[in-house]
Amino acid sequence: MTEQTRFILNETDLPKYWYNLNADNPIPPAPILNPQTMEPVTPDFLSVLFPMELIMQEITTDRYIEIPEAVRDVYKLWRPTPLLRARRLELALDTPAHIYYKHEGVSPPGSHKPNTAVAQAYYNKISGTEAMTTETGAGQWGSALSFGCNIFEIPLEVYMVKVSYTQKPYRRIMIETYGADVYASPSDRTNFGRSILAQDPDTPGSLGIAISEAVEVAATSEGKKKYSLGSVLNHVLMHQTVVGEEALKQMDLAGEYPDVVIGCVGGGSNYAGLAYPFMRYKFTEGKNTRFVAVEPTACPTLTRGTYTFDYGDTAKMAPIVKMHTLGHSFIPAPIHAGGLRLHGMAPSLSALVDGGYMEAVAVHQLTTFEAAVQFARAEGIIPAPETAHAIRVAIDEALDAKEKGEERIILFNMSGHGHFDMTAYLHYYSGNLEDYEYPQAAIEAAMADLPQVSL
Ligand SMILES: *Cc1c(COP(=O)(O)O)cnc(C)c1O
């Protein structure tokens, strides 16, 4: 066994293709429905919101999509990212398991999100989009898209969930540094925002509401502005597969193949990005790798949500998709992993969990921070609160392997660093964080409000 800790690829090893799981997924994708007619959407309907190239990527079953040269050029600012073996964490846990992590926190905005942000800005640029709109929760997506839009010189409006806008001013300032305009959502700039403020002026906001605002602005711009989503959609997950394609080569360098692949899930993009290239070999070569998606107990979309058709946003303007959902009216508790608080989940990932190809677990907030601190003290990297969910389960797997005396190979996605989340850590140290379990009654109430789809 090599004693190597970092597994590094050259710039020339940067993948030339994204991988599309829909080519190999035994569960065919369910149709995307128009929120007004409940009929399958036409590319025309989607083209109000997205440029045509991204719509085609959304529905294609081609196995590989070439990464444009201009996008690869920008990726070179931080890609290929390192794969590390967490030797010091293994020692601290005294486990026979080998723990590997793909470090996406080394990107300029600090997470995996620019992998798709840069691609989306590029495709909008070449289709003549004049400006883009988006929502952001914790601010990671907003800063990633602001970074991408700045490179391709596209103005950007970011609707930022109000609780994060207040709790996380540094991310907002980062978004502004890259050049975008940021508004606290709900805002008074949209019909939907004004209607929410009229009902409840003190609402903390939600990702669903912010999505509705960003969608409304694009949909009423007469084609000038396009909307961008940072997770959930197929094309977003596909752009993230650059992570897993690199990780495959790096696990090769390490001379190992993972027994279990772990990631935290908000809308599912960072995890799908790492997992799907490995999932490909489960489907095509019969590899029996385990896949574990980790979510917060405060937003238990996969573990307690229903697998059904639901709107992508609170205002019922975004398309209806089949996914695990807590209901489009879901307003989450203000836990610190803001990026994991969406009501829905990527359709392909939902289908994999429903089909038994992927496991899902929910973990409490306090135990994730405990794992985050243990990881930081062993490996030096302070993880984002979202990422800490994956770390919690990676540690649990390593401890389980220890108990069973197994040399289990564990791989997880280090989706981002936590340098802008020190307030969350502060609350943890001062004992102000609480565990939160989303109430069953709220889940059932939200289910009463699902679209009546006849499929
Ligand atoms: C946004 C974010 C997530 C959650 O989003 P996914 O689409 O599920 O990946 C996870 N980790 C970090 C660091 C994020 O910024």
In short:
With 455 residues, the chain is α/β, with parallel strands linked by helices. It is built from 18 helices and 15 strands.
Description of the structure:
With 455 residues, the chain is of the alpha/beta class. The chain has a domain at 6-13 and 68-110 and 241-447: Rossmann fold. It has helices spanning 43-46, 52-59, 69-75, 87-93, 114-126, 140-151, 162-167, 169-177, 191-199, 207-219, 234-254, 269-285, 301-304, 347-354, 365-379, 385-404, 422-429, 440-447, and strands at 6-7, 17-19, 64-66, 83-85, 98-103, 131-136, 156-161, 181-185, 225-227, 260-264, 290-296, 306-311, 320-325, 359-363, 409-414. The strands form 4 sheets. A 7-stranded mixed β-sheet has the order 1-4-5-15-10-11-14, with helices on both faces. The protein has a 4-stranded parallel β-sheet with strand order 8-7-6-9, sandwiched between helices. It has a two-stranded antiparallel sheet with strand order 2-3. Strand 10, helix 12 (269-285) and strand 11 form a beta-alpha-beta unit. Helix 4 packs across helix 15 (365-379) and helix 15 packs across helix 16 (385-404). The chain starts with 5 loop residues before the first strand and ends in an 8-residue tail after the last helix. The protein binds pyridoxal-5'-phosphate.
Query: Which class best fits the helix and strand makeup?
Result: alpha/beta
Strand order, biggest sheet? 1-4-5-15-10-11-14
Instruction: Write down the overall mean pLDDT.
Output: 94
Q: Percent of residues in helical segments?
A: 40-55%
Strand proportion: 15-25%
Radius of gyration: 20 Å
Q: Give the N-to-C terminal Cα separation.
A: 53 Å
Low-confidence stretches: none
Bound molecules: pyridoxal-5'-phosphate
Shape: globular
What is the strand tally?
15
Write the CATH fold name of the domain at 6-13 and 68-110 and 241-447: Rossmann fold
CATH architecture of the domain at 6-13 and 68-110 and 241-447: 3-Layer(aba) Sandwich
Number of helices in the DSSP assignment: 18
How does the major sheet shape up? Answer: 7 strands, mixed
In the CATH scheme, the class of the domain at 6-13 and 68-110 and 241-447 would be Alpha Beta
